[in-house]
Amino acid sequence: MQKQLQQITADMQLEEHYHTLEKALLALYFHENCTTKSLAHTTDLPIPIVSAMKKEFAKQGWGKHSLTKKGQLAISQYFQLSGADAKLYLQLTTDDAFRTEWITQNISELSTIYEARPSADVAIDQAKCTVETALKRALLALDYTMLLNKRILCLGDDDFISVALAFLLKKIAPNSTTKIVVLDIDRRFLCTISKIAKDYELPIKTDYYNVQEPLPKTYAHQFDCVYTDTPYTLTGAQLFLSRAINALKPEAMRHVFFSYAKRSYQKQWQLQQSLYAMGFVIGSIQYDLNTYEGAQILGATSQLFVLQTTEQMTPYIPNQRKFTRPIYTGEIERKSVVYQCSHCQHALTVGAGYQYSTIAQLQASGCPDCKNNKFSQMKRTVQKSQSKHALGHHILLELHDCNDALLNDVQQIKKIMCQAAHKAKATIVTEHFHHFSPYGVSGVVIIQESHLTIHTWPEYGYAAIDVFTCNSKLALQDAVQYITEQFNAGNATQHYLHRGRP
Asked: Is the pTM of this model over 0.70?
């Protein structure tokens, strides 16, 4: 059936992937009768396109406004819906009040299982989410048509999202062929999840994996969606998401449900720049979904990104070799806190590398002198393990609507670029410019502090210019302003990059 859906997508020249057709067919199957308007709302497609899609379904003999027996059988076999609870599916996907009540009712059923989770290892940024959060995250797979007849990867699973997903799957479609895989560096969680899967007959497979190693070929390009709650560092998030891209099937409209600690606006911007560079579309950001036990992270909450893949996915970090840079908070920011016993005033340091890595461990053990378990904070220290200074500063300058004659004048361009280097107070080492036939100029000005380069397309009135320096004291903006004015650009944009920053 998948080939038929892919063919319909091609015949309709549908920009959306065939997964949109899957969503429409599930709606027709469970709702039994769908108007074109309601189906347009479900699929986020314009009504004319939905009308054309329904005609294609009719050509296959599946039905148009409601499914034929042939259509019901085909969809049931494709999604393995034998024994499915249609009423529960409908209520969970259409009734918010019922959904909230259902989560509340099922928390107690899962709580006993979740109590078996090992303690969180803060050295690798573990922080266990609540049972309610796990169920809410699992329901996202249902919302985005990523639960039935799919392969789901949990990349790190101290939250037991795999268990919540399998629990939801058994409630809705107990005979589904969905496979859930857990890859984690913590063998404690792997062993516990494996035992739960065996005891409750859940479709979960576990395997040891250190995300700093390349993703094994066994798991490459195998999954429809990925759940991951990454380390609280930008580098950690970039690495986990790169591995997620390696694991996803190479098709658009796959999903990553990505949880990440709340950060400042500047760090949030850096994260979103990384998501853009990798090719992700941010479908939504949910700020009130993730809640954690304890307070290992800010406010015991984090944000959840619903990311959608495109046809231009590029891992931020290659999969060819081991990644050696630090990725966990404790490796990048070594934090320690001095606590004083409220009874005997004995002072102890808590943090990574000390006898007690968290205050919870100290409280559980008690003061080594008097066994009291109440402490007051005296001093907090944060040591940066790496410098935050960038090695280079790079401006990418885009000039549009320039004078085409000037863009083809190699001598004039050479003069402008060399003068721009002087404006930046740089020291010129050498320069080289070349005129292409019939038109176009490329050139470089090598400076002691790095370089300035230019490539022109006179036929389009466009010039691409790089201004790069390893000396933060150079007046780069003076050079950029001079270049922009000299080329008399009608439209100029620039992108500022920090190069070599940890």
From this structure: yes
